[in-house]
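Troubleshooting log. The previous run stalled partway through. Resubmitting the same two chains, unchanged.
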Amino acid sequence: MADEDETKEYRWESGYEKTWEAIKEDDDGLLESNVADLVARAKRKRAALKDTGAIQLGMMRHLFVVVDASACMFLQDLKPTRFLCVLKLLEVFVHEFFDLNPISQLGILTTKMKRSEQITVLAGNQKKHIEALQQLKDLSCEGEPSLQNSLERAMNGLKNMPAYSSREILVLFGSLTTCDPGDIQKTIKSLKDNNIRVSIIGLAAEVRICQEIAKKTGGTYNVLIDDHHLKELILNQVQPPAVAGSMEASLVKMGFPGGSPIVNDGTSDSSADHAPAYCLCHIESETSSLMGPNGYNCPQCGSRYCELPVECKQCGLTLVSAPHLARSYHHLFPIKPFIERAQVRETTHCFACAKLFVEAETNVYECENCNQIVCLDCDLFIRETLHTCPGCASDPVTAQMKTN
Amino acid sequence: MEDKEERIETSLVAIVIDATPAKKFASQPLDGSSMMNRIFDSLIAFGNAHLMQASHNKLAIIACNSKSTKFLYPSMDGTSRSYHNRPGQYDMFAKVDSDVRHGLGELILNDMTDNDSTKSDSLLGGAMARALSYIHRVQRELSLSHQLKPRVLVVSGSCDSALQYMTFMNVFFTAQKENVVIDCCMMDTDSGLLQQGCDITGGQYLHIPSVAGLLEYLLWVFLPSPSCRSKIVLPPPTKVDYRAACFCHHKLVDIGWVCSVCLSIFCKFSIMCTTCNTEFKLNRPAIVPAKSKKRARIE
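Second attempt completed without errors. Output:
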């Protein structure tokens, strides 16, 4: 579905697939081992697909999520309703998004009654977005959506973002119609001029204009099969995209608020920096209270903040902590996929989890660098979550090569 | 089974022992025995104390030095060694005791025989990665009626190794994702990286002032599960230094330059990113206004 272009024939036009022929009984007449094998293969295939990333990624992303809130979102083909299902998945998405794209920003729009409404402005605080999504649950879905209005609105928000950031819009579109005030082709053109990538996930059936928008702006267009597929489609958007052709790269000045007053050799950290002060993020709200010595001081102007990452309200410096950046480094130093091997007698245990290899398991996986053997589950765990080969990290030579 | 209250809690502690300082401690005498023996005795006693708390509790011990990492318990040898248990001693304790002593002995002897003088860092990152893989497997294999409360306890005495930064960070974020708490008990030296790890995963970092009292510290601070730590009085949390080290000189920076493509950190402006080979445009729209404003204020 992902790389569907106009020349590709539709599913119903292609030949008949005999899916049941892939399943064969083993010697004992059981299907179990065969099914396990198929499942494992599917898992690996999915993981392999994810790996085809370019090294130059748009790590700083500005993304607007447009949620359709028109009458059709009350349909119950996704349980409990389309709208609630989408909101629930978006919560997961927001969480994962900030996990993988730590210094990116996200905003949420809805569209109903032929207009578009802003729910959250572009911001890097995931708590706010999740709260807003939870409040949206009580929203009534009515009227028709407007694709053009929401795209224009998102575009206005994204236009002024710095040129080095990747600007994106993700539309979750349930309706088959849209009510637009003008020529949507003009909108598509200006989206393209502004280097904004629009990806659309259709919740009903394929709509031509959506296909066209996605194609012209370099995004993807997918139509869901069921709620599991929808989850997969939404989570596919979490991975940072490859750098778009005309995006400028730039070095961005950032502040790393130091914590410890002892190790600092500079003059910036004096006792005044740890004196109680109001944090600038909550100073306008009524609940603001004097903070103790905890908190982060902007190294440029000394303003106090209670959490990171944040953009300094005083001097505009982006303040982050080192682990925020480190969270995305595994994109830079990806591990090589392990090679599938037939099981050999000499290695009786999985190197990573110390599991005893059993007869039924025919395939084991070997790291090219350190030649350690791991089991299938560890292979997936290492590739999807850990991003570090325990074998390489346990070898004095390869452990040091890993970090340039 | 649906009722969450009825799920049996299984507490898994994976102890990661850094055996690199063993040489240093081997020479320090203490009450007729060496400090090294005292440390290992303490660790085994702690492991057994954890197993004794509840019958479902699980234990894993992984050791590392600068040459390799090794599962001590459960041991990977496969051959069941004969172990002598003293009359009345619980079988499992005797097994832990013999496995750990045997494994540690092998590890340290390998290190001793191979005496090239190049001093390399301890492979703590690799050992922690293996601990997480093990925890992941136990979690997977556990039946639905059990609920795993995993944590990793790092007992180390060596300095930070900048070369393993990536491994450490990957381990910390994986632990955070999998709800694994990382606790850390440091002897002799302090470790900034492990401090960050404990802070990220919500664990306890403790730098013990006296190595001889290791067991007391372990039993006092690290034996209670993280859920009941709020009820006991623990050493105050250390202030964590979250400043970044630049990629070019491995120097801690307050204000740095970050590549927009790959997020590498540099301590001064350059025209090309050394990590991803991106060339930067020299007009810096986001930066110039900030500078001019500052200058205007000074004038």
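Takeaways: Chain A touches chain B through 79 residues (CB under 8 Å). Residues 1-5, 260-270 of chain A have pLDDT under 50 and may be disordered.
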